[in-house]
Amino acid sequence: MDPSLVKIPPMKDLTADNITENVITINSLCEDARMKYVLERLVTHLHDFARETRLSSDEWMTGLRFLTEVGQICTDVRQEFILLSDVLGLSLLVDSIDHPKPPGSTEGTVLGPFHTHDAEEMPSGESMSHDPKGEPLLVVCTLRDTEGKPIEGVKIDIWETDSSGHYDVQYAGREEPDGRCVMRSDKEGLFWFRAITPVPYPIPHDGPVGRLLKKLHRHPYRPSHMHFMFEKEGYDHLITALYLRNDPYETSDAVFGVKDSLTVDIGKVGPELSKKYGVPEGQALLTYDFVLVSDAETSELRAHNSKVALDKLGRKVKIVNGLPIPDLD
Ligand SMILES: [Fe+2]
């Protein structure tokens, strides 16, 4: 490359005090305003982190080795980086920022590392779990918009562990999906299925993230839950889960997923539901009414929240493509 064509502002005599502004300056040629802003804030916070902790070279190498190991253990069915983001609380934070929920709508929570794209589509009434040791559970749900109207034809991904607390992908000999399915809501917004009562389970803790938790004196357990993901054009993509109340890990979830509005009591199937759904009376029952938010409602709320949050930090921003960038006009 011809050096005379490089339009980079000159940098020299770099010091601990001026390194941040110099890195920001050299990155500022980026034409993507959002990327430029994200990089500017990332560099600022990373540098401040090093300054504030007086980070030693040994500690930095330990950190780099740790991240290397996190990458090396990842496979098609093991995502250690998602796990790392989860145990640091970052996954929940990003979901809350990007998918804000108005009052009365269903809150989101962490996706976790066990969603797959090969679950089979299943009509209402069938069983998503083939584990004979699981406690049979009838799940009856409705799906509405924020005005209370049923939403038909939403694609719903559902996944849970078996009765031993393992997802199908954690078994080496997995030949086909189990404990997961895809459903569609009917014109009443209803979908119902048979499953097993969720149990608590540890996140994979035989890798670098598990070792980190151990060092921090944290346990790797997640409270009993079932995952749900909703997709329909015009509605904000909802990734959520339902948590069983009074689970021993309800208040110490390793990945910070539990929210009050997503915590449910397991009931029992009474005579009416037994007849209607053809399941034995007394069987465990989970019911929930999900409320989806439209894309328009979400964009408006996201932009509003961004303005409020950045105003508090004293930053003048404008919203472009739904995301904040510095307002330099
Ligand atoms: Fe899970």
Q: How much beta, percentage-wise?
A: 15-25%
Number of alpha- plus pi-helical segments: 8
CATH class of the largest domain: Mainly Beta
What summary fits the major beta sheet?
5 strands, mixed
And the CATH topology of the largest domain? Protocatechuate 3,4-Dioxygenase, subunit A
Structural class: alpha+beta
SS elements, strand count: 13
**How many domains comprise the coordinates?**
3
**Poorly predicted ranges:** none
End-to-end Cα distance, whole Å, is 34 Å
What does it look like?
This protein folds into 3 domains: 55 residues, no CATH class; 214 residues, Protocatechuate 3,4-Dioxygenase, subunit A (Sandwich); 26 residues, no CATH class. It is of the alpha+beta class and 329 residues long. The strands form 4 sheets. Strands 3-2-7-8-9 form a 5-stranded mixed sheet, with no helix packed on it. Helix 1 packs antiparallel against helix 2. It starts with 18 loop residues before the first helix and ends with a strand. It contains 8 helices and 13 strands. The protein binds fe (ii) ion.
Give a summary of the structure in a few sentences.
This protein has helices at 19-27, 33-53, 57-72, 80-87, 90-98, 208-215, 271-277, 295-312; strands spanning 136-145, 155-159, 180-184, 190-196, 201-202, 221-222, 225-231, 238-244, 263-264, 267-268, 284-292, 317-320, 323-326. With 329 residues, it is an alpha+beta fold.
List keywords for this structure.
329 residues, alpha+beta, Protocatechuate 3,4-Dioxygenase, subunit A, 3 domains, 5-stranded mixed beta sheet, 4-stranded mixed beta sheet, 8 helices, globular, binds fe (ii) ion
